[in-house]
Amino acid sequence: MTVVKIGRVIAVPVGRAGAVAAAAVVALVAVAAVATLSLGRLGIPVADLPQALFGGAEGKAAFVLGRLRGPRLVVGIGTGAALGLSGALFQTVTRNPLGSPDVIGVSAGAGAGAASAALFLPGLLPVPLGALAGAVLAMAVVYVSTGTGFQNPGRLIVAGIGVSAISVALTQYVVYAVERDKATVLMAYLNGSLSARSWDHAVTIWLVVLVCAPLVALLARRLDMTELGDELAAGLGAEPGPTRTAAVTLSVVLSAAAVAVAGPIAFIALTAPQIARRLTGGPGPHLLLSALVGALLLVLADLAAQQLPLPGNLPVGVYTMAVGGLYLGYLLTREWRKGTL
Known about the structure:
Layout: E1 2-6, E2 10-14, H1 16-38, H2 49-54, H3 59-68, H4 70-94, H5 106-120, H6 127-146, H7 153-177, H8 180-190, H9 199-226, H10 230-235, H11 240-262, H12 268-280, H13 287-307, H14 316-338
Antiparallel strand pairs: 1-2
């Protein structure tokens, strides 16, 4: 394990296995990006992509890159990275593989907040702020409901299920209350979708990621120490209480930003950190690798949403929900057999 220092304040632990895995995932993201831009009837031929990207695109290529698939791809990478990083922070803080914004209701709360802002305060409260408010409120309710904060996995899941149910009920009411045309658009958003994304969405999610990433890097070593236990971490100067609070806050902000631009896309935050941990085979939060894996998973899911010949043009959230639901079932079974539920 080596420590990469950025200035005098930021020090990020990097292992050889993690570096190799990160390079491999970056290469896979690049391959998936090329496939996203080139496949299908409106795709740009691979041979023409370099010129289209760097030489000034014209005609169909300009439309695909500038309005159709370019913004969608950039938003997908940023959103997946935000969700993967959010899940890694939450799982590290809770020391629980089930502790993700999806499972404890943060994503559902963010969706309900965004929908409520669109219905009850149109023009007064921006949808991104509504998503953030809903996420914070959901997190607070879960924290209080468990009686032990984020420490007990079983209580965390039960409280999260309750908060998610209430949030979904509120969201369904919003969908029912608005006009039919608006409800159709809102429902697609609430399923998690990258369709019709713009460069404004790309700027929003990447601004949040780029602001939060250095703050997460500042916490990296302390988060690594918290996995040793609170007493030992405190003895090493990690201050587990403030570290945990800061990590949860950043996790909620990242998750809310992802919901604001793409809707509540399920299970990326749950599965990406688990895959990152298995790629390295070692302990630690694996924050950077989790972000990269999250980006890869979402780009691949969106590629499937665009190219698979299924009826209805299913949004990307349906694909992540189908795969992630199976993975959640596997995790629940494993934790139950270990006696941690």
